[in-house]
Amino acid sequence: MNTFNTVLPPVKIYVMKKLILLLFIVTVACKQDGKKKQLLAQERLAELEIKLDSIFEQVVKPGDPGAALMVAYEGEILIGKGYGLKNLKTKDPITVNTNMRMGSVSKQFTALAVLALVDQGKLSLSDTVYNIYPYDVFRNVTIEQLLHHTSGLADAEEAFFTEWDSTRIAQNKDVVDFYEKNPPSQSDPGTQWQYNNGTYELLAAIVEEVSGQDFADFSREHVFKKAGMNRTHFFNLAKPTEIKKRAYCYEKDSLGQWQEVDGHYLNGLLGAGGMYTSISDYFSYTQALRSKSIVSPETHEYIFTTTDIPIPVGEGEALAFLEGKKSFYAKGWEVSEDLATHGGGWFGTNTFVIHHLQRPLDIAIFMNNDRLFSSSLIEDTYQAVMTYLQEQNDREHN
């Protein structure tokens, strides 16, 4: 009868003990190495924040209107904070939840409202505007040309600066009325690129005409909610609604004193601008944009599809990191190789956003004053972030 001896020889017991001890040492070492790497990563991120604080504090002085900053990478906010005040009367500071006026960054959301109608089968990008408003000036102009600034149409908003009764608040229906008079076009449709705020305000009117909804309501239901932007609004001065946690817009007068400038008569125009959002809401939007969850995946592909007509040199974003790159306009974005960018400027507000097309990086700077483009803030922020990411990558691979 065979028996199984369960008692191991002394040599085997010794070897097993050594293996267990070695495994324990390796496990502890790995944990310590992981903690060390985590601490180093936290230190490097803290260094980036200190660097960015220094950059912003050169532009935003204590007691002044200021800025909100977002640096998001790989689905997380690396840096999200405010500098300066949202309200000079109450001295309330800007935070990641402060709603700030977007200026022309609003255009990408107007484009998404149009694409939502495409998703619903109510509109095609190849449709002519003449199908909606049968005015001769629109006969050969397509919806996509409006989106790409290649319609050749006159700019209604530009005309309103000199031809409008400034005691009345201009609204989008007034833009439609402007085009009904068939003003001379700047060029034939689809032949030249010319930035045009009026055509984006026309797009907002088209959204209302086709959907049967107020533009702000349609955008909230079909764009903002889908993007997780629960505190974002289009603001119409002719139909004022409360915007909670709002930053007021400021510019300096001839005596160097900050003055609130929210009451301009063109602040009833929506589409080219007029949107208020916060850093926290904008982060949600960037993640929805990357996950293609705002419109259908098929329609999403249109967002960064550009016109074939390049933006003329000197008319795009004049930034060193875009120098030498050809830029083409998409749906509310200027696309330059691996970057999609857009700036916004209006009375008492400057904004700039960067959406990297090849890596999960988004940067946003919102200001409730007009100092962004007269400083090196965008350049310095971008370079600091890219240096941080490069050093992070180098350390991970060494």
From TrEMBL:
Top-level taxonomic group: Bacteria
InterPro entries listed in its UniProt record: AmpC-like, Beta-lactam-related, Beta-lactam/transpept-like
Beta-lactamase-related domain mapped to chain residues: 53-370
Record protein name field: CubicO group peptidase (Beta-lactamase class C family)
Protein source organism: Zeaxanthinibacter enoshimensis
